Amino acid sequence: MVINTNISAQSSARLLGESSAALAKSLSRLSSGSKIVSPEDDAAGLAVSFRFDAQISRIGAAKSNVGNAVSFAQTQDGFLSKVTKALDRMSELSILSQDVTKSDADRGLYNAEFTTLGAYITDVAGKQFNGVNLFSATALNVTKDEDGATFAMNGVNLGAAAYTGATGATVDTAANAATALTKVKAALDQLGTDRANVGANISRLSLTGDQLSVLNDNLSAANSRIKDVDVAEESTQFARYNILVQAGTAMLAQANATPQSALRLLS
User: Fold this and answer.
1) 102 phi and psi, to 5 degrees?
2) How far apart are CA 112 and CA 195, in angstroms?
3) Quick one: 93 exposed, middle or buried, by C-beta within 10 A (0-12, 13-18, 19+)?
4) How far apart are CA 28 and CA 15, in angstroms?
5) Which of 218, 213, 212 is nearest to 147 (CA)?
6) What is the DSSP code (8-state) at residue 140?
7) β 140-143/150-153 pair status
8) Residue 55 pLDDT
9) What is the pTM of this model?
10) pLDDT at residue 32, rounded to an integer
11) Where are the alpha helices (DSSP H) in 97-173?
């Protein structure tokens, strides 16, 4: 029996310190919801999680870009649907102007509407979306993934020869009306091709957006398995450490009291 060195108390104090540290760690995990509260918990997992976080953020940005591109294409198609109506009416006017029962004065009335509709199409050709020309022959490169790869969205050029031929025509005479009809039909053919391209762009971009959403979900799930705490499991550990701390505290008190029995030998 010794007094100066209480091995039992030292051992109890060490074990109590370890249990207290484990309890504090468990409490931090439960309060933060994160499995990794400091780098030493899982250094490799922390590095992987950081990369996942950055990739998920880039996917969100790419998805935003794709969504804006879809809005751009839908705006294009909205204007083109009105251009379709204008060209339909222009083709009708070119036929009406070829009526042999009409005088040139009558054709002048038709021509006034025809040229006004042509001016409308010319005006639409200059429209913009957030400062970007809606109708241009230049393809727009849309960011489609987190690595910055792009998809070339086909341009629509309302300044193409097929359109300018129709908008520059007149129906003030029967001969001009016949020529105008040919040009308007060519413009309608071109418009059909352009609207098909716009529809294809929207379809492709919508699929790309869906793909990014699925990828984001899968990466988020993988990242969660690395860094998010399992509350059910951790709460069990918390209860265990809490009991160990209480038991360790009680045993340390007992170990500290043991040397007092030496007083009986001295009395």
Assistant:
1) -95, 145
2) 27
3) buried
4) 20
5) 212
6) E
7) antiparallel
8) 93
9) 0.80
10) 83
11) 104-124, 161-167
Three-state DSSP state, 132:
strand
pLDDT of res. 21: 86
- Nearest to 29, CA basis, from 220, 221, 222, 231: 231
Give Cα separations from 249 to 16, 26, 194, 242, 244 (angstroms).
Answer: 7, 18, 80, 11, 8
Q: What is the DSSP letter of 160?
A: S
SS3 content of the chain, % helix, strand, coil (to 5): 75, 5, 20
Q: Give the separation between CA 90 and CA 114, rounded to whole angstroms.
A: 6
Specify the residue for token string 């340390």. Answer: 252
Question: How many Cα neighbours within 13 Å face the side chain of 137?
Answer: 4
- Tell me the DSSP string of 7-29: HHHHHHHHHHHHHHHHHHHHHHH
Output the pLDDT for position 251. 86
- Residue at 181: amino acid letter: L
* Contact criterion met (CB below 8 Å) for 98 and 177: yes
Low-confidence ranges of the chain (pLDDT < 50): none
